[in-house]
From TrEMBL:
This is Proline dioxygenase. GO terms for molecular function: iron ion binding; L-ascorbic acid binding; procollagen-proline 4-dioxygenase activity. Keywords: Dioxygenase, Iron, Metal-binding, Oxidoreductase, Vitamin C. Its cofactor is L-ascorbate.
């Protein structure tokens, strides 16, 4: 039986807050494997909870006024995007939600260098504010913003690919997933329903979009999945996946619920870039 974890609770609250139809939420939960009685009960409890709460900040109040509004995606609409130092090919686009898959964002040599630089820095991954959690079973390594010429080049390439300022980018973070390692369904934006979300979102504000760059081919498993869409993206060395979840009205797109499927053979290495609505104060102080 599937668990009602924090990410599922967040998805339920988002949909109930903006008045989504109970039947459509029930159908979506059955589609991904929840038992009917469990789905019906948690949906009912969510709607009751919403009715007793005060208006919510950081975009959720806007969602109550209607469905998420898809405005123009910042990423260029071309099939080949010329970044500041490399041409990148688009292999897939989804408009609702805004998801784009790319090929050849990094060369094989660059992927290998990121992995080797990361190995001595790896530590067990956390979620939230320094919390170890079974939701995310991986090791993580971080790089300081612009810490050397190589990192600067990658940050500039990612920024130009996403058409978003370098100053609005969180530090690069590398994750290694061993066999059975996974990241269960979650959203990347700061949820107003979670303790500390507003504080975490002050430096740069809300997250706007994510770029996941795959550093190796995974022999089996390890795909990036969007369970509410039935979409799965296989890890391919040098390729990348972009998805945007905040629009110009600061609404948050709950359809970007995603997961890193368990690795079944080998390892999975990725480098992740999150971008925010404003420049990061911590980055400016460096």
């Amino acid at each position: 039986m599937l668990d009602i974890n924090a990410a599922v609770e967040e998805w339920l609250t988002d949909h109930a807050s903006r008045g989504c139809n109970r039947q459509s939420m029930f159908d979506a939960m059955l589609k991904v494997g929840f038992e009917p009685e469990r789905a019906a009960g948690v949906i009912d409890a969510t709607f009751k909870g919403i009715q007793s709460k005060d208006p919510l900040p950081m975009g959720i109040e806007a969602l109550r006024q209607g469905e998420y509004l898809y405005d123009a995606c910042p990423v260029a609409a071309d099939n080949v995007i010329r970044t500041f130092d490399r041409d990148v090919t688009v292999s897939m686009r989804c408009e609702r939600p805004q998801i784009i898959a790319f090929d050849n964002v990094l060369s094989a040599e660059e992927c290998a260098e990121v992995i080797e630089r990361s190995r001595p820095r790896l530590k067990r991954s956390v979620t939230g504010v320094g919390v170890y959690n079974s939701i995310r079973t991986s090791d993580t390594a971080g790089f300081l913003p612009g810490e050397d010429a190589f990192i600067q080049r990658l940050e500039q390439r990612f920024a130009s690919l996403m058409n978003w300022p370098v100053e609005n980018g969180e530090p690069l973070q590398v994750q290694r997933y061993k066999v059975t390692g996974e990241y269960k369904p979650h959203h990347d934006y700061y949820s107003p329903q979670q303790p500390g979300a507003i504080v975490r979102g002050k430096d740069g504000g809300q997250r706007v979009a994510t770029l996941i760059v795959y550093l190796n081919d995974v022999p089996q498993g390890g795909a990036t999945q969007f369970p509410l869409l039935g979409l799965s993206i296989t890890a391919k060395q040098g390729g990348a996946l972009y998805f945007r979840y905040m629009n110009g009205q600061r609404q948050l797109d709950a359809l970007t619920l995603h997961a890193g499927a368990p690795v079944l053979a080998g390892e999975k290495w990725i480098v992740t870039k999150w971008v925010t609505e404003r420049p990061l104060e911590s980055r400016a102080r460096r």
